[in-house]
Amino acid sequence: ASGEVKGRMVNQWAMSEHLGDLRIATTDQPSWDNTTWESFVTVLREQDGELVQIGQVGGLGKGEEIKAVRFIRNIAYVVTFRQTDPLYAVDVTDPAAPAIAGELKINGYSAYLHPIDDDHLIGVGFDGTPEGQVLGVQISLFDVSDPQSPVRTHQHALGDFGSTEVAFDHRAFLYWQPTELAVFPVQWWGWDEVNMTEDFFYGAVGYSVDPQEGIGEVGTVTHVTDELDPWKNGDPSLRRSLVIGEHLYTVSDSGLKASS
Q1: Alpha carbons 119 and 92: distance in angstroms, whole number
Q2: Between the CA of residue 40 and those of 60, 112, 257, what are the distances in Å?
Q3: What pTM does this model have?
Q4: CA 135 to CA 153: how far, in whole Å?
Q5: 11 to 25, 173, 188, 250: CA distances (angstroms)
Q6: What was the pLDDT predicted at 168?
Q7: What does the alpha-carbon distance between residue 179 and residue 189 come to, in Å, rounded to a whole number?
Q8: N or C: which end of the chain has fewer CB within 10 A?
Q9: Which helix (H) or strand (E) holds 60?
Q10: Which residues fall within 8 angstroms of residue 198, CB to CB, at 6 or more apart?
Q11: Residue 188: how many CB atoms within 10 A of its CB?
Q12: Angstrom distance (rounded) from CA 157 to CA 127
């Protein structure tokens, strides 16, 4: 079967099959004028060889676009952004009548959402100002135990400005459940007002993420061997990380590294 919905998807997480229905989150951008932008969660069902719309809710982030989506059972968590970051919880328990259950507005936005249990999401994205200027990379912990009132319980930002591959490829993110360890690559830049010097980092950061204790930095890994020439042995930007036995392995274009 095949069908259509208006708009575009941000990535593969914008689709979810559940009990034979296809749930899909899209942003419709009919013109360059962002006042016309609107996001939807639509439910399609197969009928006589076609995917037919049986339910839809709109009005998500008018004037904004979807940055991240995660479907968990009967709830769709949708992040939109242009100036602030609304995290919407959309209830799709009744596929014929999906509805916004709750929302949370904060500065910046999450570009990837990762569930760690039934009630908590990790968000990796970017910090921001109230005016909508995007700043450095940040990791957030959301309590979504009450979809009508999602809460960000903890947050940690890195540097004044930065980037992370997780923003466009979820495979760069690692969450190691046995030790509650979150690892992801980051590049950040900052300015030391005291010493009037530029600070930078190419590597990966590791955080312990516990629903009760919050977010705590465990350590960092870098493939930079010469601070004066970070690219001496090739691009030191970390791409992937994985756990084998008691070691954390990180991969960049310049090599492979094992850390405790």
Answers
A1: 17
A2: 6, 18, 43
A3: 0.89
A4: 20
A5: 10, 15, 25, 25
A6: 93
A7: 29
A8: C
A9: strand 50-60
A10: 189, 190, 191, 192
A11: 21
A12: 7
- The answer to whether the CB of 230 falls within 8 A of the CB of 202 is yes
User: Of 53, 159, 72, 66, whose CA–CA distance to 114 is shortest?
Assistant: 72
Q: How far apart are CA 98 and CA 91, in angstroms?
A: 6
Q: 246 φ, ψ to 5°?
A: -100, 15
CA distance 83 to 108: 7
Q: Can you give the pLDDT at residue 85?
A: 67
C-alpha span between 126 and 141 (Å, rounded): 13
- DSSP states of 81-111: ESSEEEEEEEE-SSTTS-EEEEEEEEESEEE
Alpha-carbon span 132 to 145, nearest angstrom: 28
114 vs 68: CA distance, rounded Å: 10
Computed from CA positions of residues 138, 144, 147, 150, in that sequence, does the dihedral angle turn out positive or negative?
A: negative
Contact at 8 Å (CB) between 138 and 155?
Answer: yes
- For the chain, residues with pLDDT lower than 70 are 83-85
In degrees and rounded to multiples of 5, residue 180 shows phi and psi of 55, 45
> Residue 192: its pLDDT value, please?
73
Instruction: Decide: 77 and 84 in contact? Cβ < 8 Å.
Output: no
Residues 6+ positions from 33 with CB-CB distance below 8 Å? none
User: CB 32: neighbour CB atoms within 10 A?
Assistant: 7
